[in-house]
Amino acid sequence: MNQMNQIHAPRRALIKGIVGVAALQSLPNLTFASTPSRVRLEWQQFKTTSQYKSFLNAITAMRKNTNPLDPGSLQYWANVHETHCPHSSTYFISWHRGYLYYFEQQIRLSSGDPTLNLPYWDYYANATLPAEFTDPAPTNPLFMQRSSTNVYNALSLWPFAPAVFNYQRGLPDAFEFRIESIPHNPFHDLIGGIMSTLQSPLDPIFYLHHANIDRLTHAWALPDGKGIPETAYPYSPTNSDPYWAGVNIYAADLSIERFKTYNPTWLGYDYANDNVPTSLPPLSVTAQAGRTQMSSSVRLPANQRPPFMSFTAAPARQIGANRRSLGGAAQMALDEKSMSIRLTLSAKDAAAVASIITSQRNGKNGIDGGTVASVKLVIAQPRLSQRGSLGGYFYVMYLNMPPIIDSNTAYDQAFVGNLGAFQIAAASHHGPATLEFDLTTILARQQLTNFSEISISLVRVDGDSPPTGTMVNLQEARIDVSYEPAPAHPHLLKGLPGRYS
CATH number of the domain at 3-271, please? Predict the structure, then answer.
């Protein structure tokens, strides 16, 4: 099966919930493990152990198995990911932690080695794809056609800033949002090929990437869990935060109670390195394009604001009873060039934004009478070109970007998010996508008093084999104000049995 056929492989049977029950029942039940019995190793160490051959045997067997209903095939796990994974939503970390746990059980079954643990790739130590994944020999099960072999341009220390305490998406500076924004999404975008789609688990590097995301999350949380909502083991509504209620679904007969994904040691494993990165790896020749060192501790995508471009205006209008568009740019085509767009707001719309931001600065979070008001960037119906769908690039989006971003603070006050093939695929696999990015906290930080103009910059960032031509067509990029029911406030419970440390 060629790569494009793999990308669009049928998943109807899995969506209907028809799964290999007998094979799933062979996976062991979870039990509480106060002391982890297994340690996941970094790839360079892992490949020197006997587990390396077992891993190759497992991936070989799972690539040869083409039955999408059999957990012994990579196609099964790709379909699980495409059907059930939460991206740009709550439980991104929790769901993937359980997913890796179950996949790890399967590679032990497929290899016949009960000692086999998943490895991880610490790309903060070396950003170049391990050589074992780039050897095109027909017998190498780790090789796939990819767009890039270096992920340096996907890296930043932004998720690990000392002030980052909140965990849950939706809270200010939430780690769950940060780690997905950088490095998770850009990694998928730059590696490209099937990694830029939701069928990405067909590429073995997917599992090393997500094991590293899991490791980085655990390292950030140590030693006390920071602002992760707490839970006892087992979960109970009387002594645990409701964030951990319910289950993560993987298939009709495969799920995990969310509270068990609170801490990897509760699943019986830990990592060889539990430290957050404090620096980036050396900048290779192939990764130099579009990167500028801002400080001794962090390098970020190109720090100069791109030129303002003319565009077809999308008019301000009422979108719904609780949402209004303040205007935007229509029918945009994104290629290898970076660009900025400037939107002019009416006096009425500028006043509405000012009211929301003033409330945010006063600590009310825009909430009045059970309603939360927010300002959002909306990317409406992005469509990938054929070449754009293969990745090798992404766009960093900034709000009111200054002429130059010359400090980490300036970056923190302007960064909105990333847009690339993977994010679009994740939002589009059930139909035309609309991506939203909350601007409220960023606008509040910028200390503006006049909101008659708002600008958005899209900075193109490339891998080591950057594609050219039109990558993405957008129906519209616009600014909205929305008024929605206020979500329930999460609460942090202290002193519970089973605290993170």
Answer: 1.10.1280.10
